Structures are given as structure tokens and as C-alpha cells.
Amino acid sequence: MNSHRTPKGIKPRYFADPATDKLLQMVITLAGELSVTRDRLDLVERLATKTGAFDRAAIETLKLTEADQAEREAARADFVARVLRVLDQDLEEITNPGARGFEELVEELGRKD
Predict the structure, then answer these.
(1) Whether pLDDT at 8 is above 70
(2) 72 and 112 share a domain?
(3) Domain of 50?
(4) What is the percent of the chain with per-residue pLDDT over 70, rounded to a whole number?
(5) DSSP codes, the chain
């Protein structure tokens, strides 16, 4: 259920070890996810406090339904897939070495002229 596009072409390298670059990509992805989550949580808490919808103690005692749990697990799986996408890209390149991105095809066609 991964709807994220995978960029093709040359990947930037910042460190001599490609594994370090992959780790950096995952950390940056996590930082972005955390930043968005904190912004949204802050907004929800401010709105709840302002409207008197609930207090912070209610958050700690809320029991989720099975449907709520399933939705949360699906969201978690999507999150993990986004964080580990860089590794999925490498796996795709290993398991499907004949697949080429658009940029690679254009470059190859340009060399034949």
C-alpha cells in the first residue's frame, strides 16, 4: 500500500560509505515525520484546551476500539515503510537489475546519437 514514488537516477552521495548515506536518509525522514507529528499534536492540544473538549488526563485513560487499533497499526506500517524506503529501493535494484529509470534511459539514448 505504498503510494510514494521512488526517485530514479543518480542518488546523491555525502559519505564514502553508502550505508551511512542510507542511515542519513532514514534519520532525515524520521526528523520530518516527527516535526509534522509535533506540530499536529500541538494544534490538537491547543484546540482541545481552548474548546474544553478534554483535558490531558483523558488522553492517558482513553481505551481504543479494535477498529481504532487496526487503523493505528496500518498508519504505523505506512510510517515504517516511509522510513525504510531507502532500503526498499536498494532491494528493488538488486532483485530487478534490468529496470531502468527514465533519466537513465534518456542518457543512454543520448549516447547512441
Answers:
(1) no
(2) yes
(3) 17-62
(4) 77
(5) ---PPPP-SPPP--SSSHHHHHHHHHHHHHHHHHHHHHHHHHHHHHHHHHHTS--HHHHHHPPPPHHHHHHHHHHHHHHHHHHTHHHHHHHHHHH-TT---HHHHHHHHHHT-
**Rounded Cα gap, residues 26 and 18, in angstroms:** 13
pLDDT in tens, 14-51: 788 888 888 888 899 899 999 999 999 999 988 998 89
Question: For residue 5, is it within any domain?
Answer: no
Give yes or no: residues 72 and 111 share one domain: yes
**C-alpha cell of residue 103:** 533519466
CA nearest to 85, candidates 33, 32, 29, 37:
29
Domain check: are 51 and 96 in the same one? Answer: no
C-alpha cell at 54: 478534554
Q: Can you give the pTM of this predicted structure? A: 0.53
